[in-house]
Amino acid sequence: MIQPKEDGDGGPESAAASLISLLVSHNLSIAVAESCTGGLVAALLTDIPGSSAALWGGVVAYSNECKMRVLRVERKTIEENGAVSGETARAMARGMRELSGADLAVGITGIAGPTGGSPEKPVGLVWFGWARKGGDAIEESRLFSGDRNTVRRAAADYALRRAVDLAIKLPGVAGDKTVDIDKPFGAVYSDR
Length: 192
Hints:
Blueprint: H1 11-25, E1 30-34, H2 40-46, E2 55-60, H3 64-69, H4 75-81, H5 86-100, E3 104-110, E4 125-132, E5 138-143, H6 148-167, E6 177-180, E7 188-191
Parallel strand pairs: 1-2, 1-3
Antiparallel strand pairs: 3-4, 4-5, 6-7
Helix pairs in contact: 1-6
């Protein structure tokens, strides 16, 4: 599994470049639904020249109302599990994929802090949802430490690195490949 890297070790910019390279080379697309990252993932992707060939777009679904109205997350999902939950992240990804028709969609929701945490859901908890063409939606959580910006950046980094890992498994990507996303001139793919 791909783990977030520290600045100076590739960082989210490297992951964004690798993801765009992979998607463009296979004529695939991604869409993002972001809450706690506030559009940071989309911003990192749009920093890459030529990203419009792969990035469908994104939604900053910061409020629960936006999650429900735009991404079609059911009110019951949020009421029963909370806005920061695997169920909500997965529903955000599904809603984004249905809205966009993209090959891969990510939903991100979490508590960046410095307030808003609880013993059950501490500051730094981020849930990720993934919806892939030809695959079921999945969810994952990570607990990041640091201040608000550090948590947001770490969450964006993880989302991009995990998107590379999942994009490799999309229909249309030949074979079982590994990717080194920290090469200075873009992603390097090789057979496992």
